[in-house]
Design the sequence.
């Protein structure tokens, strides 16, 4: 439980700036940081338990069917990272409070920072692989917000985009790799996966999984060839660089490799991929760092280099190397975060980060100088600082790996590390004082120097007493990585026979030499062409954007006919391919006998269809022919044992034709001949093939038995017992699939409101309204707009139609009928009044608004469904019972009927609103005056 | 019987598709209407045809047609009415607003 609280605390802290927007920066930082501090205390309380080999866990099912559960586990490795994330997080929060200037939006910054902290903490605590992936993506998103925090800077926006694109793409690859891994292991729980080394390494999917996971880890930890995003991300405010890009986020990839080390490492593939990438990254990063003029750029590339070092150590696959890797994670986090913060101080106080414009700061900024001096010497690996210890361990490991060239390259990397560390000290702080700093530099207040100073104290203390300071945590976390702890031994002196000693000395010589030759080397460096990862990335992104634009322009160039044609052609091709690649057997289901009546209906439908084809340019005629087709379709439903469908189709047909006739009143009455003959042929061919395919498919379907038993039996058996009705279709609609129906009536109501809004738009001043007002109603087609006979008959029919509607509604649960059909019938009864007596006459007699009907309908249906909650049942559970009220017969009362009432009201309101809206157009064009 | 229905569905689809590919709004709407008939019949028929066996439970009767496709199609009919109504109004608005009823964008139209 504590662990869940720890994981939640940063997210809760992220809410504080939003909840207390009026707090000043100081109190707000204090409030937010208290969440981090509390989490840190809670984690620290678990240290003894972890040290004794236990791993506190917390488990809560989330989506067990997918293998996703909220499982947290605090082992040694997680403990190390949690302490780093929360501890450095506290320092960064303090530093950021003083670093950001008044103009910056401080509250959102805090929120982003806490979100990131929570995501990062989630990664290291997750014991479920899918949960880990969720947090992993969260770090990508929150770091995007942080890197692009200075939205006004184009570099910030570009850097953020690039970081998101690179780490996001890697994250996607990693999801695939992790899924493969959990598939092989048969579990998504990490602590279970870690026990299946043999199965995983024997699997043929080991290599694909490894490559995909490494893609995720390498992109996140800026390993070659994905290292280019990290220097671009330096456009972020310095607290972000110090936090994300030295201590935490870029270590996520490292963490993942360490986490999965027991199951993935030890194979030649692992060695060459991981150690190889690490070594290359270490060298390239160090070389580029040496020549950087931007202070943060130098630190960024040196970070790339040191991440490469850790990756290299993990890649070696030996236990001692893993211990060295874990130890260097701690050391790098301390000195590099301190250096980043110090670089921020220089930038803040001197007004520039360009090393060429700095120099001689040692007297002007003595405190900062002291901090940078110690941290840089540690980075260079000077004894007795902590960086020396882990570098020594690295060299020792590298010396014992074959081929020997690896040891040589590692020494070269260490030498370059010395070179850029010394250059940082020499070119920024040493040298003559200058008079041309953008700002007169001076040391900042303690708010800015205290956080890095604390880290520098750690650098020294760990360096002096490594076992006392970090032995326990390195032991616990290396134990978690390698599966066996207990023999971590860190010391300064390994004797003269140790190759690391001589390699270290060589590295120092190399570094000093490089620094003394800096001007000449720089000229050489600037003279050589360099592959620009940034430019390659820009080309890739630009190229894929152009490609997708070209494809879009090809398909969606604004011509609907073309887009539809292409879609249909693709569908046809897919259907043909599927058909031609599968075997076919004749159907076994006996066909139904053909009767004369069916033949008559078929002939009418075929004739009407061809007539539509022939006369489709005469729109009114085509509409009437379409309604003939609709009538035959409803007759077919009635003939084929679907009375409910027949009733629905019939009533919908009436409403649809009415609506389209109203629309046609305003639209042109004829379609011009404008398409060239070849287009007719092309469209005709596509249409004929589509029709042929659909017809053949349904013929095949109808003449075959179901491959699986139908779910029809369930519905037929339970309609009466569970739903209390004998009309199974209606019971399905209002009971078994009530939720679908609820959604459907909501859509229907929304559609009617959309129509209302569209018409409203047309009626507001504009070109459409002008055109509408200039339209004159057609005179002479009918002698009288409201013929007396029509008026009289419809008014007489109204009560009868209403009664029919009530009848159909009431019997719906047991006989054909129900809310849908009743709504349509009653709707038509009212529409007849509109038609016969005019819009104005009808509207003025209407007491209930159409909108209100729709709203009431959806509300009644929803409340009926929610009513089930009162009895502790799920949404839309129905209930029914039988009541006897003398002198009536026994009758049934069902909640489903109430739900059906909601359906009825919504359909009634929607139909009327749709048609009445179009009628408003008629009034505007002058028809309603009569 | 199956052959009648299959040919009818095929023909309705073909005529509907042809109209769907026309360049003016009204034929496109008619085409969509015809295609909805065809699709509704298709879904309905996919449950298998049966004569004189409506899914209304009666004592002594054991053979019923499949009610599930019917329930699906019933709501489909109603929803397709709502959608037809919406696109009809859209077509009407486009005609009143732009002064023509072409469905393709012409050169110079704002995308």
Sequence:
């Amino acid at each position: 439980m504590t662990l869940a609280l720890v994981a939640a605390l940063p997210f809760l802290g992220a809410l504080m700036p939003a909840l207390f927007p009026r707090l000043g920066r100081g109190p707000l930082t204090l409030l937010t940081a208290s969440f981090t501090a509390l989490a840190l205390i809670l984690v620290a309380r678990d240290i003894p338990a972890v040290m004794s080999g236990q791993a506190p866990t917390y488990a809560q099912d989330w989506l067990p069917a997918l293998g996703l559960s909220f499982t947290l586990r605090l082992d040694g490795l997680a403990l190390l990272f949690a302490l780093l994330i929360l501890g450095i997080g506290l320092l960064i929060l303090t530093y950021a409070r003083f670093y950001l200037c008044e103009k910056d939006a401080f509250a959102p910054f805090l929120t982003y920072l806490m979100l990131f902290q929570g995501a990062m903490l989630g990664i290291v605590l997750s014991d479920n692989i899918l949960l880990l992936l969720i947090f992993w993506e969260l770090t990508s998103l929150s770091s995007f917000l942080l890197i692009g925090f200075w939205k006004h800077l184009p570099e910030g926006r570009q850097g953020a985009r690039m970081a998101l694109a690179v780490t996001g793409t890697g994250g996607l690859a990693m999801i695939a790799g992790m899924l493969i891994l959990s598939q092989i292991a048969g579990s998504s729980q990490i602590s279970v996966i870690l026990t299946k080394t043999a199965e995983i390494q024997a699997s043929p999917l080991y290599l694909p999984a490894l490559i995909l996971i490494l893609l995720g880890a390498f992109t996140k930890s800026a390993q070659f060839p994905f290292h280019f995003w990290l220097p671009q991300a330096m456009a972020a405010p310095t607290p972000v660089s110090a936090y994300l890009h030295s201590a935490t986020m870029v270590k996520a990839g490292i963490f993942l490799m360490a986490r999965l080390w027991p199951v993935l490492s030890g194979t030649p593939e692992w060695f060459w991929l991981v150690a190889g990438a690490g070594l290359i990254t270490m060298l390239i990063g160090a070389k580029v760092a040496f020549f950087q003029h931007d202070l943060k750029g130098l630190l960024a590339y040196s970070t790339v280099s040191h991440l490469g070092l850790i990756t290299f150590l993990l890649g070696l696959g030996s236990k001692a190397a893993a211990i060295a890797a874990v130890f260097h994670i701690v050391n790098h986090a301390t000195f590099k975060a301190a250096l980043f913060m110090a670089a921020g101080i220089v930038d803040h106080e001197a007004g520039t980060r360009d090393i060429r414009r700095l120099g001689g700061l040692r007297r002007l900024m003595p405190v900062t100088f002291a901090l940078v001096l110690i941290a840089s010497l540690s980075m260079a690996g000077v004894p007795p600082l902590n960086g020396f210890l882990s570098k020594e361990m690295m060299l020792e490991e590298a010396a014992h790996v074959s081929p020997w060239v690896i040891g040589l390259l590692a020494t070269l990397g260490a030498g370059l590390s010395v070179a850029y560390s010394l250059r940082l000290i020499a070119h920024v702080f040493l040298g003559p004082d200058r008079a041309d700093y953008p700002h007169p530099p001076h040391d900042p207040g303690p708010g800015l120097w205290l956080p890095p100073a604390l880290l520098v104290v750690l650098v020294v203390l760990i360096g002096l007493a490594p076992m006392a300071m970090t032995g326990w945590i390195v032991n616990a976390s290396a134990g978690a990585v390698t599966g066996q702890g207990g023999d971590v031994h860190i010391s300064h002196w390994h004797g003269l026979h140790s190759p690391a000693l001589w390699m270290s000395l060589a590295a120092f010589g190399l570094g000093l030499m490089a620094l003394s030759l800096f001007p000449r080397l720089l000229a050489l460096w600037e003279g050589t062409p360099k592959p620009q990862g940034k430019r390659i990335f820009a080309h890739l992104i630009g190229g894929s954007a152009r490609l997708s634009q070209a494809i879009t322009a090809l398909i969606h160039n604004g011509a609907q006919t073309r887009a539809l044609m292409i879609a249909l052609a693709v569908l046809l091709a897919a259907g043909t391919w599927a058909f031609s690649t599968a075997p076919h057997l004749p159907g076994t289901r006996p066909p139904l006998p053909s009767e004369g009546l069916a033949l008559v209906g078929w002939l009418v439908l075929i004739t009407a269809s061809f007539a539509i084809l022939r006369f489709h340019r005469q729109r009114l005629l085509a509409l009437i022919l379409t309604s003939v087709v609709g009538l035959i379709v409803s007759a077919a439903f009635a003939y084929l044992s679907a009375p409910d469908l027949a009733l629905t189709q019939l009533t919908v047909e009436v409403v649809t034709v009415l609506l389209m006739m109203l629309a046609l009143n305003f639209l042109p009455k004829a379609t011009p001949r404008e398409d060239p003959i070849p287009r007719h042929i092309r469209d005709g061919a596509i249409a004929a093939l589509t029709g042929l395919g659909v017809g053949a498919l349904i013929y095949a379907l109808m003449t075959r038995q179901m491959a699986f038993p139908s779910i029809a039996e369930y519905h037929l058996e339970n309609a009466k017992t569970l739903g209390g009705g004998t009309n199974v279709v209606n019971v399905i609609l209002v009971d078994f699939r009530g939720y679908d129906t609820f959604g459907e009536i909501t859509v229907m109501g929304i559609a009617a409101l959309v129509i209302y809004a569209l018409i409203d738009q047309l009626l507001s001043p504009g070109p459409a309204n002008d055109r509408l007002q200039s339209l004159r109603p057609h005179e002479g087609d009918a002698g009288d707009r409201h013929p007396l006979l029509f008026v009289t008959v419809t008014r007489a029919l109204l009560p009868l139609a209403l009664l029919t509607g009530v009848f159909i509604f009431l019997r719906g649960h047991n006989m054909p009928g129900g809310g849908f059909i009743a709504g349509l019938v009653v709707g038509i009864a009212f529409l007849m009044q509109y038609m016969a007596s005019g819009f104005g006459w009808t509207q003025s007699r209407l007491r209930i608004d159409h909108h209100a009907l729709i709203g009431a309908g959806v509300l009644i249906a929803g409340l009926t469904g929610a009513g089930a909650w009162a009895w502790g049942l799920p949404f839309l559970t129905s209930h029914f019972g039988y009541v006897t009220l003398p002198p009536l017969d026994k009758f049934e009362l069902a909640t489903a009927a109430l739900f059906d009432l909601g359906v009825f009201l919504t359909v009634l309101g929607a139909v009327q609103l749709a048609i009445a809206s179009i009628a408003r157009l008629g009034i505007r064009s002058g028809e309603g005056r009569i | 019987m199956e052959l009648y229905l299959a040919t009818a569905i095929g023909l309705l689809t073909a005529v509907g598709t042809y109209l769907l590919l026309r360049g003016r709004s009204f034929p496109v709407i008619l085409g969509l209407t015809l295609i909805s008939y065809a699709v509704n019949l298709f879904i309905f028929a996919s449950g298998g045809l049966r004569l004189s066996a409506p899914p209304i439970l009666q004592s002594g009767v054991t053979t019923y047609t499949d009610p599930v496709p019917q329930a699906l199609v019933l709501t489909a009919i109603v929803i397709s009415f709502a959608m037809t109504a919406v696109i009809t109004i859209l077509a009407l608005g486009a005609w009143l607003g732009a002064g023509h009823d072409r469905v393709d964008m012409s050169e110079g139209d704002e995308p």
